[in-house]
Design brief:
Blueprint lengths: L44 E6 L4 H16 L3 E6 L3 H10 L6 E5 L3 H7 L18 H5 L11 E7 L1 E5 H6 L8 H13 L11 E4 L8 H12 L5 E3 L5 E3 L4 H16 L12 H9 L3 E6 L3 H6 L7 E4 L10 E10 L5 H11 L2 H9 L17 H4 L4 H13 E3 L7 H18 L3 H18 L5
Parallel strand pairs: 1-2, 1-3, 6-9, 11-12
Antiparallel strand pairs: 3-11, 4-11, 5-9, 5-10, 7-8
Helix pairs in contact: 1-11, 7-8, 7-15, 8-16, 15-16
Length: about 450
């Protein structure tokens, strides 16, 4: 869904007065919903949010503003730990919440489980203001809308500018440039401490929640490959054995196994660990979402890194796009819930999600086309770049497939094993393609 190639220019940092986030901040700590997802509701709407830390404070500010406007009370529950498992248990117990805020990538899985309702966008006030690309991510393969977007983003590249300067290196704009900079960061002591303790690339390579597939997907698209080919009628053919997919896998394997420029422990790391690796000077380049700006600016790495568009691969410069969606659950109080969904896409709510709690930007890029991210962030050029990359190079995963999460997990398992064993990329992709075909047949969507 790309519309063109982004020009690659380093974006200098604007100082942001942000404070470090905590893992204990949970908003209204006296609320039983903060610890018990099935606690008896004191208000008409029960809302579950996949998140942690100060994010609940940010959501609570939006919920409080909604209650002040409508009089409708909200009882939130938030967790990162086994969120979807808890949701499945709640469904089995016939105690689903009214609204769930979770990754856009869960749409196909939720629809397959039958735990969400289709949504008529005419029932959502202001839905005509939603960015079309974000709205498309909330629509299934048959054109039925099953969620309301709340936040969007696309991955960008964070680079240690002080390391580039010390080694007299230019900002990378191609895969070859990335490899050269990564080698220099790994072998030429960019931090000047006289130790062999730095690496070029930061990778969240754990199989948990499909992280390694999440990271590698940008490489796959940049090589001109894809996971599947759609026939436009809800049927798919696996394409991970294509020459482009093998090129992407080979590039990854070379960086890890031949060049050895990926930080140690990557295959066990999630984004919490990779954030720390970048913050503490273990790795010098990190492909991640713009939500990382606040996290990095709360540490000593603030002012030492720049943000650039992802360097181009052999085919293009596409990068992973994703978002947070609001799902209307099957047994929800739909009238009140639709009022909440309408409120969450208003400029007021979108801006609150970006600024109310600086350590928790729960709205990364606004999905309301009347809200400008850079303006909200006081002209910070990083947000202007993030918005440009999303609009021109953002590429969503197959969120609307019946069980995309299972397919992504298979990809993660294979990629993790390939890197761990330094296996032949072509063989790994051929095996993965066969597993995809089997899953597509199981799901009844094989073309």
């Amino acid at each position: 869904m790309t519309s063109g190639r982004v020009r690659f220019a380093a974006i200098g940092l604007t100082a942001l007065a942000l404070t470090a986030g905590t893992l204990s901040g949970c908003g209204s700590s006296s609320s039983p919903a903060a610890s018990d997802p099935n606690a008896a509701a004191t208000g008409p709407l029960t809302v579950w949010v996949r998140g942690s830390g100060d994010s609940l404070k940010a959501y609570q500010k939006i919920f409080d503003a909604f209650t002040a406007k409508t009089g409708i009370q909200i009882k939130p529950f938030m967790t990162l730990t086994d969120f979807e498992t808890k949701l499945s248990a709640s469904a089995a117990a016939h105690k689903l919440p009214d609204v769930v805020l979770d990754d856009a990538a869960q749409l196909g899985s939720f629809e397959t489980q039958g735990i969400i309702q289709p949504i008529k966008m005419s029932d959502i006030t202001g839905s005509d203001q939603i960015v079309p690309t974000a709205l498309k991510s909330a629509t299934d393969s048959q054109g039925q809308t099953y969620a309301v977007p709340f936040s969007a983003q696309a991955n960008v590249l964070l680079i240690r500018k002080d390391w580039l300067d010390k080694l007299h290196l230019q900002v990378p704009t191609t895969w070859a440039d990335v490899a050269n900079v990564a080698k220099a960061f790994t072998t030429q002591d960019p931090d000047g401490d006289g130790k062999n303790d730095t690496y070029g690339i930061d990778v969240p390579g754990t199989t948990s929640r499909g992280y390694i597939s999440w990271w590698w997907s940008s490489m796959l698209w940049q090589a001109g490959g894809d996971y599947v080919k759609s026939d436009g009628n809800g049927k798919y053919t696996a394409t991970l054995d294509s020459s482009a997919a093998v090129t992407a896998a080979t590039e990854f394997e070379t960086l890890a196994c031949t060049d050895k420029v990926i930080e140690p422990g990557a295959l066990n790391d999630d984004t919490t660990a990779t954030n720390k690796a970048f913050q503490t000077g273990v790795a010098g380049m990190y492909l991640t979402g713009p939500y990382a700006f606040a996290t990095m600016d709360a540490t000593s790495v603030k002012g030492k890194y720049i943000v650039v568009a992802p360097p181009a691969g052999p085919a293009n410069a596409e990068t992973l796009a994703e978002g947070t969606d609001a799902y209307l659950m099957t047994d929800s109080k739909s009238n009140e819930a639709k009022q909440l969904l309408s409120f969450m896409i208003t400029p007021q709510s979108q801006i609150m999600g970006m600024t109310a709690v600086p350590t928790a930007t729960i709205v990364r890029l606004p999905i309301n086309k009347n809200v400008d991210a850079a303006a909200v962030h006081k002209g910070d050029p990083r947000w202007a770049l993030a918005e440009q990359v999303y609009q021109s190079e953002g590429h969503y995963e197959y969120d609307n497939m019946p069980n995309w999460t299972a397919l992504r997990q298979e990809t993660s398992n294979e990629l993790n094993a390939m890197i761990a064993n330094c296996s032949d990329p072509a063989s790994a992709m051929a095996g993965l393609n066969g597993k995809f075909e089997s899953l597509l047949h199981q799901q009844g969507v094989a073309g």
